[in-house]
Specification:
This protein is α/β, with parallel strands linked by helices and 364 residues long. It has eleven helices and 14 strands. It has helices spanning 3-18, 36-49, 117-129, 138-146, 191-210, 231-237, 256-266, 275-284, 295-303, 318-331, 333-362, and strands at residues 24-28, 53-56, 68-74, 100-105, 132-135, 153-155, 178-182, 214-217, 222-223, 228-229, 247-249, 269-272, 288-292, 310-312. It has a six-stranded parallel beta sheet with strand order 2-1-3-4-5-6. It has a six-stranded parallel beta sheet with strand order 11-8-7-12-13-14, with helices on both faces. A two-stranded antiparallel sheet has the order 9-10. The longest helix is centred in the C-terminal third of the chain and has 30 residues, at 333-362. It starts with a helix and ends with a helix.
Length: 364
C-alpha cells in the first residue's frame, strides 16, 4: 500500500470520529491489528454490557474528546515498557470533562527489558489524570504503587475471562488427544531467537506426535494490512515435523469468540506463548502450559494460582521441562482441569462485579 493511501486512511479515522449524533463511550486499546488477544477485551466488554461502545485505536476511530462521554483505556499495551499505547493528546489536560478509566490494564515488560524513563513518565501521568484505575492483577498494582501512584487501585482481571464463545466449524478431524499451540513471532526477538524458538518447538511437536497426539496450530495474529502473519512461524516449523498428517494450521483469522470455541471444543491441552492463549485456555477450562517471555505471563499465572505451569522461553532446559510438566498434567489431568475451572469461575465473578461497579458509578 502506498504512503498516500495510508494517509488517506488515517485521515478517514478522524472524519469518522466526528460523524456521530450522540456522545459515546470510547474504549481505547490496540484494536484492529488482527491480534485476537487485544481484540478480545472489546468483544467481551461490549457483549457483557450490551452497550454501544466505540473502539478507539490508531487503526479504528480516533480519540476525539468532543464526542466522548467516557473514555476507557485498557489492555497490556498501555503499560508497555517502551511505548505505552494510548493517545498522547490525553495527557495534555489535567482533567477532562468526562471520566477517564484505566480498564484492566496489565504490566508489560519482557524478561530481558526494563521500563524506560519516558514510558514511566507517561504511565504516571495517565494514572494522575485518570478518574479510576483498575488493573488485571496484583503484580501490576504493585508496579504502579512502586511508581508512586497514590490513587486507589482496583483489581479487574482480564476481560477475556468473560468472553463468550461463538460456534465455528473447522475442516479438522479430531480423532485423538489434541494439543493446541500458540506461538508469537515477537517483534523484540532477533532472527536468531526466532530460529532457536522454531527448533525447540519442532522438537516438542515431534515428541507429542510420537505419543500419538494431534497438533492444532493457533495463530493469534493475522493482519494482512501490516504484513503480520503468525502462520509464517508455523510454516517454518512444519518443515522438520516428522509426521505432518498429525498437524493442522488454522488457515485464516478467527474472531476472539470463534478462537475460544476452537480451544474449548477442539483442544485438550494448550501450549501457549501468547498470553491470551493461556487466558482463553483458562476461560474454557483447558489445561495449559505457558511459554512465558514477559512478566505479564507470570502475573496471570499467579492470579490463577498456577505458577507451576510456567516455562520461561529462555530456559536452557525447555524441552526437558516441558516433557516433565506435560507428563505431570496428563497424570493429573482431571484435577488440574477442575482447579482451572474453579479459579476461572471465581475470577469471572470478580470481573462482572467490577464492571458493574464501573457502570453504576461512572457510565450512567
Amino acid at each position: 500500500m502506498h504512503e498516500l493511501q495510508k494517509k488517506i486512511l488515517k485521515g478517514w479515522r478522524y472524519i469518522k470520529s466526528y460523524l456521530t449524533i450522540s456522545k459515546k463511550i470510547g474504549f481505547y486499546g490496540a484494536f484492529g491489528y488482527g491480534n485476537i488477544g487485544d481484540d478480545a477485551s472489546y468483544f467481551a466488554l461490549k457483549d457483557f454490557m450490551k452497550m454501544d461502545i466505540r473502539p478507539l485505536s490508531k487503526k479504528l476511530y480516533a480519540f476525539n474528546p468532543l464526542v466522548l462521554k467516557a473514555m476507557l483505556v485498557g489492555g497490556g499495551g498501555i503499560f508497555h515498557w517502551n511505548a505505552p499505547y494510548f493517545p498522547r493528546r490525553i495527557l495534555m489536560k489535567d482533567k477532562w470533562d468526562f471520566p477517564i478509566i484505566i480498564l484492566s490494564a496489565g504490566i508489560n515488560c519482557d524478561y530481558l527489558c526494563k521500563y524506560t524513563s519516558e514510558a514511566i513518565k507517561k504511565i504516571r501521568r495517565l494514572c494522575n489524570i485518570s478518574t479510576l484505575i483498575t488493573v488485571r492483577d496484583s503484580l501490576t498494582r504493585d508496579f504502579l504503587l512502586n511508581l508512586g501512584v497514590k490513587k486507589k487501585i482496583r483489581i479487574l482481571p482480564d476481560l477475556a475471562l468473560i468472553l463468550r464463545e461463538k460456534k465455528v466449524n473447522l475442516p479438522f478431524k479430531k480423532d485423538s488427544f489434541t494439543v493446541g499451540i500458540s506461538l508469537a513471532a515477537h517483534t523484540e526477538f532477533t532472527k536468531r531467537k526466532n530460529k532457536e524458538l522454531v527448533f525447540l518447538i519442532t522438537k516438542i511437536v515431534n515428541y507429542l506426535i510420537s505419543k500419538g497426539h494431534q497438533i492444532l496450530f493457533l495463530p493469534f495474529q493475522i493482519c494482512e494490512y501490516d504484513k503480520i502473519d503468525e502462520r509464517k512461524i508455523f510454516w517454518q516449523l512444519i518443515q522438520n515435523v516428522e509426521d505432518k498428517e498429525k498437524l493442522y494450521i488454522l488457515d485464516r483469522y478467527y474472531s476472539p469468540p470463534e478462537m475460544l470455541y476452537i480451544i474449548k471444543n477442539y483442544c485438550d491441552f494448550i501450549l501457549g506463548m501468547r498470553l491470551h492463549s493461556n487466558i482463553f485456555a483458562a476461560n474454557s477450562g483447558t489445561p495449559f502450559i505457558s511459554l512465558s517471555y514477559n512478566i505479564k505471563h507470570k502475573a496471570f499465572l499467579k492470579m490463577m494460582d498456577l505458577s507451576m505451569l510456567d516455562i520461561p522461553i529462555t530456559s536452557p532446559s525447555l524441552l526437558k521441562e516441558f516433557r516433565a510438566k506435560f507428563e505431570e498434567i496428563i497424570k493429573n489431568y482431571d484435577s488440574i482441569k477442575s482447579k482451572i475451572t474453579v479459579q476461572k469461575e471465581f475470577l469471572q465473578e470478580v470481573v462482572k462485579k467490577e464492571i458493574q461497579y464501573i457502570f453504576n458509578n461512572f457510565l450512567t
